[in-house]
């Protein structure tokens, strides 16, 4: 699945950071691809919430990969270095929030994925249509307050893939991410790194909390989301992601997400 590197934030100044102030403590921004391309890692002085009404978003930070379908949004804390990629045809509603405006009990970690229910989805959509300088003491300000309350209450989703700190292991992980259906096994990647399979296995567990097999399985399932969201046949998606049978793919998908691909996206598998 090919992605495009994008950023839908306010105009940047400088190479890595967006200085200055938002026009309001909560700023809504609506974009469709093609967006402004940012190939390098960057960060904002504000909290960023990336949500797609269609398509799939992927956010990469130093510690992990975070995915969101139209059922989720990615919360990126202020100052977190990140890259954002979107599947072609993705339509984004981004929110930017002054950290001082978020209640302490609602503060999230550096990055996480939030579940977006029907009410929160409609609030994000409605907020994106407001003018940049909405009245804080009017309907726009009240909408912003309700939106922040709903974000604080939103549960986290497990659409996260941890990345290792070790440079060699990270290189292997990103190579697998680029070609999730590649059949290369543990022994192959151990040879690439010049270590034994047991050593590589221990490195994966120590640095990601997952075994090599579970890390690769989760990667393949997350990589399948864009094609499934577009309505591509489950059989084709499973083969593209390296599964030898559609039944094995569906079983793994249900184990990870708690439902079949058809149920997850509201269409027949």
From TrEMBL:
Q: Which UniProt keywords apply?
A: Activator, DNA-binding, Repressor, Transcription, Transcription regulation
Q: Which domain of life is it from?
A: Bacteria
Q: Where is this region: Disordered?
A: 1-25
Can you name the source organism?
Candidimonas nitroreducens
Q: What is the protein named?
A: AraC family transcriptional regulator
InterPro entries named among the record's database cross-references: AraC-bd (IPR003313), Homeodomain-like_sf (IPR009057), HTH_AraC (IPR018060), RmlC-like_jellyroll (IPR014710), RmlC_Cupin_sf (IPR011051), Tscrpt_reg_AraC-type_HTH (IPR020449)
Q: Where, by residue number, does the polypeptide cross the bilayer?
A: none
Q: Which PANTHER family does this chain map to? A: HTH-TYPE TRANSCRIPTIONAL REGULATOR NIMR, TRANSCRIPTIONAL REGULATOR-RELATED
Pfam families according to UniProt: AraC_binding, HTH_18
């Amino acid at each position: 699945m090919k992605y495009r590197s994008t950023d839908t934030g306010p105009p940047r100044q400088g190479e890595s950071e967006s200085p200055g102030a938002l026009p309001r403590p909560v700023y809504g921004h609506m974009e469709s691809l093609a967006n402004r391309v940012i190939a390098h890692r960057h960060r904002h002085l504000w909290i960023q919430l990336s949500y797609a009404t269609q398509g799939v978003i992927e956010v990469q930070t130093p510690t992990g990969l975070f995915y969101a379908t139209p059922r989720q949004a990615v919360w990126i804390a202020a100052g977190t270095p990140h890259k954002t990629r979107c599947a072609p045809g993705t339509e984004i509603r981004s929110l930017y929030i002054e950290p001082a405006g978020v209640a302490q009990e609602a503060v999230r970690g550096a990055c996480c994925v939030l579940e977006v229910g029907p009410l929160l989805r409609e609030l994000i959509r409605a907020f994106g249509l407001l003018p940049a300088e909405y009245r804080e003491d009017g309907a726009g300000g009240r909408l912003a307050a309700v939106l922040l309350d709903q974000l604080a209450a939103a549960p986290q989703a497990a659409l996260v893939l941890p990345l290792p700190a070790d440079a060699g292991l990270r290189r292997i992980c990103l190579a697998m991410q680029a070609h999730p259906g590649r059949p290369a096994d543990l022994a192959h990647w151990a040879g690439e790194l010049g270590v034994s399979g047991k050593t590589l296995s221990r490195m994966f567990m120590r640095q990601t909390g997952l075994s090599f097999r579970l890390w690769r399985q989760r990667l393949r399932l997350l990589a399948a989301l864009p094609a499934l969201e577009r309505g591509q046949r489950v059989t084709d998606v499973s083969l593209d992601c390296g599964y030898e049978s559609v039944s094995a793919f569906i079983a793994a998908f249900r184990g990870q997400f708690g439902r079949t691909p058809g149920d997850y996206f509201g269409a027949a598998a």
